[in-house]
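Dear Dr. V.,

Thank you for agreeing to look over these. As mentioned in my earlier message, I'm a first-year student in the group and I'm still getting used to reading structure tokens, so any feedback on how I've presented them would be very welcome. I ran two proteins. I've put each sequence directly above its structure. The first is here:
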Amino acid sequence: MEERAFDRWGQHASVVGLGTWQLGADWGDVDHKVALSVLEAAAESGVTFFDTADVYGDGRSEQTIATFQSSRPDLHVLVATKMGRRVGQIPQNYVLDNFRAWNDCSRRNLGVDRIDLVQLHCPPTPVYSSDEVYDALDTLVAEERVAAYGVSVETCAEALTAIARPNVASVQIILNPFRMKPLREVLPAAREAGVGIIARVPLASGLLSGRYTRETVFAADDHRTYNRRGEAFDVGETFSGVDYTTGVEAAAEFSALAPDGYTPAQLALRWIIQQPGVTTVIPGARTPEQARANAAAGRLPELDTATLAAVRDLYERRIQDQVESRW
């Protein structure tokens, strides 16, 4: 699979990575053996980048990755984790002592002395502008607790603030055919600065797979049930912030645009990969088959201009007004 560079970090990642939120929590239960088989299928398909967080299943996702890596030392996979959601979401909690404590927990979970990449996990907006926060992150690097650091953001404005900082290696942002605003400013700024872009929520919480209808029922412990109006965290993380009924209808149109040989999900992933400035896209997977299908998108032919134009037209007609003013 093609790999792309995180210029400021000096590392490369497969254009299709693996998001492991599903292997920890908030998507219904996942059996431990199945979770390990998902990691195996992804890595065997050429995936060299796993994304996780300390709060996914209270460390379960990180621990599962550690178990897998200890069983497959022959495979080189970069692991990016996130920190900052274990405490109340106020800027005063984003200090060095807490960073060290969270980092200690993640290093234990992952079974490593130094984490490849740590990201602030969608903190309060003022955190992105704090000199003290970046000084603390620089200290983690100096202490060899982490090799590099980045941020995960909700809004384009937060992304641009972080990109301006000289040691930010990556920005993780929601980017998919139902969330195109980052294309205008964030991706060009990242390319200019040498900051990697990690595209998350690439399938709009599964909408872009084309598998859901208005009648689909999700489990009670699935965020697609309990966070539809932002009850637990930013509503943009669930269906990319798109009203579910609108999303299902637009997803049906989207599915019809898939070229021969592409599933709708692969169309979404291939669309993201083709956006200039994207380093890696991190779809989740609940089964080995999903992991392999996602990875296969990294080897499909590029989409033609007619398909790209049709995807943009759909976004502008059905989605743009719902999402651009907020994120």
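The second protein is here, in the same arrangement:
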Amino acid sequence: MNLNPNFVRTFRLWCMLLLALCMATSCEDGGEQGEYLRAEPEEELEVDTLRLISYNILEGMKLDQTTGKTELAAWVRSMNPDILALQEANRFTQESLERLAASYGHPYVVTNIKKGDNYPVALTSKYPVEVIAKITEGVSHGAIHVRIRGVNIVVLHLWPHATGSNGYADGNSYRMAEITAFLDGTLKAHPGEVRWLMMGDFNSVSPLDADDLPGGVGLNYDVHTKVLGSGYHDLMRSYRGYFIPSCPTAAFAGGNDTRIDFIYGSSAMLSDMTCVETVRDDFTDTRSDHYPLLTEFRVYGTK
């Protein structure tokens, strides 16, 4: 059948107009295609890198004899941490630590000072701190659990002696009771939280260091075996892959170099770690029997 050429051209034109009208109506009516075309680009999360230092300062930094601990404050300013976790904050009160922290630019301070304990832990921060818990009952020097920029941070100090106390036959059984209390009160108590850092003076050694420690085969690794089994990772080993002693420092040399200071992180934190190291310099060589640990990690969202 032969069609009139003018009819064919007119028919094609009407079909094209009808198709265009249908597409426009679909977008305006909010169909899938219309919603997709109008969608705004997804806003990117703000990313910051925070620096954290964990430091056993030897009985309140007693080797800094300056009034107001100005040597310590100067060192902290030079390191410029966003968060400073302290063990053995002896003789500090909440108020005196607030004054010290203000001198190095940290307006937020948490302590777990309790009656009968001269070795509290503490934390200072550039950023607002949500205090979750201060764990002090049934333990020696206790722990604090805070949340900063979406990361749960636990600062602890385990029993230091080989002999027991508080009803425990020996030091290791006491430390095991303490780490159980800390894990139960933090990580296990908040199963919906995935971003965790736990740090401090554990006064015990890790099975991951067994090949590098004198007498490694015969040492007790129960505390760190429990921590590693709870879902935490040893950040120093995970990031660097090798053993770095944390004590004694140069001024206290004479014993075997070992590692009893640790920073642990949950699986969700591993990919956001950008630095883990032991800080050794002229100040840390001589002002405590422990070297501080430093880590840097990414956080997301608003400040």
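From my reading of the second output: The radius of gyration is 29 Å. The mean pLDDT is 87. Does that match how you would interpret it?

Kind regards,
E.
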